[in-house]
Design goal:
The N terminus and C terminus are likely disordered. Strands 1-2 form a two-stranded antiparallel sheet. The chain has a domain of 75 residues: MYOD Basic-Helix-Loop-Helix Domain, subunit B. It contains 12 helices and 2 strands. It has 241 residues and is an all-alpha fold. It binds a DNA duplex (16 and 16 nucleotides) through helix 1 and helix 5.
DNA sequence: TAGGCCATCTGGTCCT
DNA sequence: AGGACCAGATGGCCTA
């Protein structure tokens, strides 16, 4: 534990020092920029702990400089991750606004998963309904060709609901995220029940309405799919890691 | 005050 | 060699 690096870390650099190393505020937000900006020669080398030798050869200040550089990179990486997380929050069908507490990271991920499952289910339901409408004939207008499968299950302009979606809200803000093994706070998706929405009641009452109009999406047109919402948060085997 | 969430640092591992 | 990625540790902030 007492390595040279820990020696450095034992000298807590001031925040100013860290910030001055790289202006993260000016970062472009291109998540993949750090991966593609520098051309690196590809060569397979045996991985061995060569850092230890190098560290001993480096002076104290050089080590500190290296540490600051690495820390800065890691900070930027985490900032990129947070920006991506914010982008995910923006497209989630959840009430946004100053009066709404921001979803936590774990809640965002779980909600996103739920949302994807819901959309998948909606698409399947749409296909089924179209199949019924146009008859069961194999030459009906509805044929699940690859091109049509990418078709408009929802209008292209159908963005995220300004209000919590009926299929999403219960899963996040009140009902247990069907993962069950999550902590209550995480399962609630917010820091404390009822604290996410100051106007939770109003939001909940807007279920079948979408911006004052009947919601065009299939979730509001047809009964909720039997298997998705409740099973939305069932944990994958890999989740249990 | 305990618990949750988060940012940051850090060392290790993997990849190019 | 350098960078990305990952996970553990730590401390601060906030809320019930």
């Amino acid at each position: 534990m007492d390595s040279d690096a820990s020696l450095i870390s034992s000298q807590p650099s001031s925040p100013d020092l860290f910030l001055s190393d790289e202006p993260t505020s000016g970062f472009s937000g291109t998540v993949s920029s750090t991966q593609s900006e520098c051309g690196r020669g590809a060569q397979g080398r045996p991985r061995e702990p060569l850092r230890a030798k190098d560290k001993k050869q480096m002076s104290e200040s050089e080590l500190q400089q290296l540490r600051l550089k690495i820390n800065s990179r890691e900070r930027k990486r985490m900032h990129d991750l947070n920006i991506a997380m914010d982008g995910l929050r923006e497209v989630m069908p959840y009430a946004h606004g100053p009066s709404v507490r921001k979803l936590s990271k774990i809640a965002t991920l779980l909600l996103a998963r739920n949302y994807i499952l819901m959309l998948t289910s909606s698409l399947e339901e749409m296909k089924r309904l179209l199949g019924e409408i146009y008859g069961g004939g194999h030459h009906s207008s509805f044929h699940p060709s690859p091109a049509c499968q990418a078709g408009p299950a929802l209008p292209p302009s159908h963005g995220p609901h300004p209000l919590p979606h009926p299929a999403m809200v219960p899963a996040v803000s009140s009902a247990p995220l069907a993962g069950a093994s999550l902590s209550p706070a995480v399962a609630a998706g917010v820091r404390g029940p009822g604290s996410l929405l100051k106007t939770a009641g109003a939001a909940a009452s807007g279920f079948q309405q979408w911006a004052g109009m009947p919601c065009p999406c299939t979730m509001c047109q047809v009964p909720p799919p039997p298997h998705v919402p409740s099973a939305g948060m069932t944990r994958l085997p890999s989740d249990s890691k």
